[in-house]
Amino acid sequence: MPVINVTVNGTRYEENVSERLLLVDFLRDQLALTGTHVGCTYEGVCGACTIHLDGEAVKSCLMLAVQADGHTLTTIEGLGGDKLSPLQQAFTDNHSLHCGFCTPGILMNMSEFLRDNPDPSDDEIRRGLVGNLCRCTGYVHIVRAVREAARVMREQG
Amino acid sequence: MFPARIQEYLRPRSVAEALAAITRYDAGDAIFLAGGQSAMQAIKSRMLRPQCVVDLQGIAELKGVSVSNGALTIGAMTRYVEIAGHGQLDGAFAALRDATSHVGDRQVRNRGTIGGSVCWNYVAACTPTVVLALAGAMNLAAADGSQRSVAADDFFLGPLETARRDDEILLSVSWPAPPPRTGSAYKKWGLVTDALPVIGVAVTVTLDAAGQCSAARIALAGLADGAQRGKLGEAKLVGSRGETAAIDAAMGAIADAADAHSDMSADADYRKQLIRSLGREVATRAFDRARG
Ligand SMILES: Cc1cc2nc3c(=O)[nH]c(=O)nc-3n(C[C@H](O)[C@H](O)[C@H](O)COP(=O)(O)OP(=O)(O)OC[C@H]3O[C@@H](n4cnc5c(N)ncnc54)[C@H](O)[C@@H]3O)c2cc1C
User: Fold this and answer.
1) What number is the ipTM of this complex?
2) Hey, which residues 83-112 in chain B have their CB within 8 Å of chain A?
3) What CATH number should be reported for the domain whose range is A86-156?
4) Domain boundaries, chain A
5) What is the homologous superfamily of the domain A3-79 according to CATH?
6) pLDDT tens digits along B225-241
7) Which residues line ligand 1 (CB under 6 A)?
8) Closest chain A CA to residue B196
9) Where are the beta strands (DSSP E) in B90-181?
């Protein structure tokens, strides 16, 4: 079985993985980082499994764990640290989650989005969210939270 | 859905190593993995059952966009996000940006590559259609050291079929410097924002000094036999100045003759209407870009 070296949320791991293990299952089952969700049948259509690979938002169900060897990953568990990130806080303040299942993927996608685009229009936010399905709150509150987080982050510099 | 057993995973550092790896297996038993945005789905559904996965992510020579004296080369492992954000793909190459900035979603664009897209040649895909309209050349290398360049017209053979042999790697897609006053555009319509095209239309036109169209290529996505030229319409654009009547006549000729199918997404008449309406918008934009 191959050995992989990955850094996840700042911690280095050296792990044995079978070649066919999906990255999302590695994170959930082997590292017990269950904040990364699986919302579709691993087809890459729901976005709930979105994580950062070397800082970029990707769907972890469309990668093998072996592909992450040598890379740096961030999952939802690594987003905030001791206190909530401005984006997480804005989701709480704006009632932007209901069942919460899609939320980790949306936060991982939008945190990268805001880094590249610190002052997005609503239309840009909506386009940025295309890869993440939410099936209960609707997107209005999510868009509102992303907009507010962008403002807070700009003000904080 | 979980992948079937994979015996070996390799991450070569060079094209030569990748080709050496692929030829250690019987044809089709080892596959190249680019962004995995199509291949991983196929592996999980067992449409592909590779014994060996040769991951191309570590091969620097396959990455990047280079523009030199107007000629354009895009490495096979260049991702959508990099093409969409490239500052020099205007005018003649603008259709590449139109397409890559709307493929799927941000996460897909962060991984998916031009090489994977053209080698997969999905029945309804954006990039093969644009590469066809832009007359790109696919540059392939084989393990015996030979290289060849295949024109888009000869490369795309039908849904999931290309002229690439299993033991060949795609190095890049390239174009010579386009003639002056060339413009291109692409647009699709899908069921949700940035979805796979129900219909997509790509157009390239070149104008002479007097503003008359001297060459045109039109390609369609979303018909049952995959990315294809709309030659009937091309002939009608040549000689025109991009007047709406001429564009409508061109797109109408393509729509009337198109072997459009009906499915859950759209019926045949709707597909034909999309060819007309998207066609008008896209061709108009291509003419505008050619005028500069
Ligand atoms: C949610 C979602 C939405 C999508 N929406 C769209 C859309 O709107 N429009 C659209 O056009 N597509 C869409 N796609 C498909 C997407 O464009 C894929 O990324 C693309 O088809 C494959 O590129 P890849 O780099 O991911 O290749 P992979 O999936 O890794 O590989 C695809 C195939 O190409 C072969 N291959 C890859 N690179 C090479 C090479 N250098 N040499 C030889 N063979 C090679 C592989 O062996 C494999 O058979 C979508 C996909 C997803 C998951």
Assistant:
1) 0.97
2) 104-108, 110-111
3) 1.10.150.120
4) 3-79, 86-156
5) Beta-grasp domain (3.10.20.30)
6) 999 999 999 999 999 99
7) A 44-45; B 31-39, 56, 76, 103-104, 108, 111-113, 115-117, 119-120, 122, 125-127, 169-170, 194-196
8) A45
9) 137-142, 147-151, 156-158, 161-162, 168-175
